[in-house]
């Protein structure tokens, strides 16, 4: 059933202001698309109202929002079955089908449309970004009679405002994504794509405070690649970088999702293990050591082996009062592992 016509005596400007107030209240694109079709359907009597995104390469349209189904995700349509949309794309302009039965645009599909009880159709491009062609199109139809000039005028004004709202939402999403990328870059090591030293210190501080507050445990492992200078001297720094990247990948596969890995500096890595007792932290370190020793590094000569030394510490510990103590204690274990012959795990 179609909505009732808007009151012709009602101030046209009031309708536009009220609609724009709703449209400009959100920066969520999906929500905004539905609000556009909903508000048009509320002020203009229509049977159907949808927004279609056009994929010109595939000659299909994707219905992104429809008034009849607020929960709609995406439905793909064949543009050959919607010649009025195809015509609007070609003309880059509004297409108004005043009478479905007589308009030549719909000659090949009019029987099906008439069978749905549709009398009149309007297609309007929605241009919300700079470019010669709009990629979004409003398609609305009614069953009773043809759209009036006032209907078309009101619809066009709403669409023009909606285009601005969509552009705002689009720019907001771009800025948000760029901000997220910058934030990630600020805490990520460029070479290994692990967290960097700065983020390690911040995260260790957070986890240490949590462990103290809830009387829980936290462990930390410091990992150093054995004889890494020889790798650089023998194979060059590019190969050394590749070894660091491979080790980083092994570390990611060897720890739990709740653990945090960072490149501490140079050939040294660190792992924070929240709520992990000493025995479990030692098992995790041994798993890492074995995985790296057994890995075949393609950038090195056949038989060349990479090993690591690992120091592990766990809080609570009588010598640990702050995060500097945690790092120092894990480093002491690392240095002891080096002194004892490398390729081993030591916990102090």
Computed CA radius of gyration, to the nearest angstrom: 32 Å
As laid out across the biggest beta sheet, the strand order is 3-2-1-6-5-4
Coarse structural class: alpha+beta
Shape: elongated
Fraction in helix: 40-55%
Molecular structure report:
It is a single chain. The protein is 45% helix and 20% strand. It has 348 residues and is an alpha+beta fold. It folds into two domains: 12-175, GAF domain (Beta-Lactamase, 2-Layer Sandwich), CATH 3.30.450.40; 197-347, Alpha-Beta Plaits (2-Layer Sandwich). The strands form two sheets. The protein has a six-stranded antiparallel sheet, with helices on both faces. Strands 8-9-7-10-11 form a five-stranded mixed sheet, with helices on both faces. The mean pLDDT is 90.
Question: What is the gist of this entry?
Answer:
By secondary structure, this protein is an alpha+beta fold. The chain has helices at residues 12-23, 29-43, 83-91, 110-115, 149-186, 197-213, 228-235, 237-254, 278-294, 323-339; strands at 48-55, 60-66, 75-78, 95-97, 120-126, 136-142, 218-225, 260-265, 268-274, 308-315, 345-347. It starts with 11 loop residues before the first helix and ends with a strand.
